[in-house]
């Protein structure tokens, strides 16, 4: 999700989902004699369970049950676990329990007792932590990965039984409506693991799979209504855990999409607020100003900073007050919980800069301490390279105490540059060159995630006028420049359309649903240019996968001349790949002696996509609108 100019797309697309706890993971609650006691199902505790062996021994439990604040809470003796204190909140329906779990504690069930108007016992489960010893879990991402990004609801329907969930606010599918549920699910994605691998992808990023039980446009996923559950229309909590395991066994990593800044207005925490200061409150609805410049503007106003960080993203998205330490702890524990429970490999953080800066540092540090291999990359849709670098690990001095500890951000600057370079008749390859020139500001810009488009913007193929030659230029750049490439679903088969006015950039993947006339999942179904596009992209992606020099090698770029941009990926083992992008309509003659510092010692080259041989490295005649990816030979 994004800045103000993209709100028209969101207006029709704002979110929903839902899913109750699965029986295997639901703590047992036993009501004792009490005339006014509510049903056991009315009591919940977040986190829903926890683990022994976590590095941080502290655990904050949020108890939600009607009238629970009038009761006293105690913990039956459990070796290695102490109840340090109980805290009431503004709402009579909440209690906070603060525990310490020592390294000597064993797995089991804590017996929590509540006495008073509300009398009950609650069996809270402590599990054995497994992540540190399991190398298949929390693998992280690196430059050798290639991320395939999809929207679960729009990709493939593998389990029709979850298409209709009667007790949810948007229970039915309606594929004829762009803003309704279409029925895609985890099983549908799992059915196509082989498709991802044939494409050359190594990781799957899905828009949020957490519960999103909103009445309108719930397919989007970014207005979560339960921090501790998946959306049943995608699959159960346990099925998601199994999904991650199966992906790992198939050589695929899983990126979990998260929202720190806001939640959905149907979240129980907003419908029954623990306290007013759990949310950023205004006298009347107040939007964010969507301008992160206020955060580090040395001449900026406090009003602009407040509007940016504390203004709401949208009417249905309550802005969470992360400066409240209780809220901060609740959120941090939740995102630790998902990693330990599922073994996911990376977090993609939605609207990253909108969160409280000090909280972002605290959140990142907590995750780094418990899961040092976890990779985290944030959406920072900002207007300059410097501002983008501000939200990743960088060389800057702290600003108002904030210095980002985030490994990576989406590279919106290079994405905008490749669009600018290819959308018109006159190529401006200097924009692409300059987008990387600012990499000196990052601690390590090679961790940045590069991309051509996503679910919040017009599709790349439409932006470049459905010009197939330009498409290949863009794909060649994506798969050979520095960083971790991300591909939006359908780009490999030339899916098109613009983000406004109808949001058709989120159409269903052809072949993922019963009755589809076209099936792009099969080679036979990818006829014409869709097949050519898939072959071209998969050829380069799989070459990148088997030739690490393209992914992890050093990069040297030469200032573009006459609309031709040339750069090299090379390593200390003497492997070198030359990439030459001619954005002009016409053939260009390129003086190869200019590249002698990288071509010295090589006598020829092989163009990866076509197999053609380049026998002269001193002069090149590159056709118009052509991308060369050339493996140099000695």
In short:
One of its GO terms (biological process) is carbohydrate metabolic process. This protein is of the alpha/beta class.
Which properties best describe this structure?
TIM Barrel, six-stranded antiparallel β-sheet, Immunoglobulin-like, eight-stranded parallel β-sheet, 3 domains, 22% strand, disordered N terminus, alpha/beta, 634 residues, globular, Glyco_hydro_b, 27 strands
Give the topology.
Elements: H1 7-11, E1 28-31, E2 44-46, E3 50-52, E4 58-64, E5 72-75, E6 81-88, E7 94-101, E8 108-115, E9 120-128, E10 147-150, H2 152-155, H3 186-190, H4 193-199, E11 203-206, E12 210-211, E13 226-230, H5 237-249, E14 253-259, H6 268-271, H7 293-296, H8 302-310, H9 325-342, E15 346-350, H10 357-370, E16 375-378, H11 385-390, E17 408-409, H12 412-422, H13 429-437, E18 449-451, H14 460-463, H15 468-480, E19 484-488, H16 528-546, H17 548-552, E20 554-561, E21 564-570, E22 576-582, E23 588-591, H18 596-599, E24 604-607, E25 613-614, E26 619-622, E27 626-633
Parallel strand pairs: 3-9, 10-11, 10-19, 11-14, 14-15, 15-16, 16-17, 18-19
Antiparallel strand pairs: 1-9, 2-4, 4-7, 5-8, 6-7, 8-9, 12-13, 20-21, 21-22, 22-27, 23-26, 24-25, 24-27
